[in-house]
Amino acid sequence: MATVTWSGTSGSKYETELCEIGRPFTTNPGVYIFCKPGREAGKWKCLYVGECENFNDRLNTNLEGHHRWDCIKKHGATHVCVTQVNGGKLSRTAVETDLRQRLDPPCNRQ
Predict the structure, then answer these.
(1) Disulfide check for 98: which of 8, 17, 73, 90 has CB 3.0–4.6 Å away?
(2) How far, in Å, CA of 79 to CA of 21, rounded?
(3) For the chain, what are the domain ranges?
(4) Spatial distance between the Cα atoms of 80 and 46, rounded to a whole number of angstroms
(5) Left if phi > 0, otherwise alpha if psi is -120 to 50, otherwise beta: which for 78?
């Protein structure tokens, strides 16, 4: 299993599992990051950060219905990083916000 560690604004580090887009996922809750290879070897560029209650529904079954899917595709996403976050929506939103504020992904901008 390949992993990528992302840092949030708080300084917290989040280890994520690196997956190809479209693969089946567990039904666990958590935070996900659509990304693509960066310019430096082994580095990844964040395109979108989100949270969900069920990885498989959000990132597999209903992927085409994702509200930012057009932007994510346009920016060339090839992979999605996932990390399980327990504790409910408030916990997931806190991690998502921490990452989004640090990474400033183009597809999260309004």
Answers:
(1) 8
(2) 5
(3) 13-85
(4) 9
(5) alpha
Q: Residue 42 has which token pair?
A: 């082994």
Where residue 83 falls among pLDDT bands split at 50, 70, 90? very high
Structure tokens at 45: 């560029």
What DSSP state is assigned to residue 65? G
Please state which architecture CATH assigns to domain 13-85: 3-Layer(aba) Sandwich (3.40)
Whether residue 33 contacts residue 55, with contact meaning beta carbons closer than 8 Å, is answered with no
Here the tokens at position 86 are: 């327990």
Tens of pLDDT along 13-71?
999 999 999 899 999 999 999 999 998 877 999 999 999 999 999 999 999 999 999 99
Question: What are 83's two structure tokens?
Answer: 């990390």
- Torsions phi, psi for 52 (to 5 deg): -155, 165
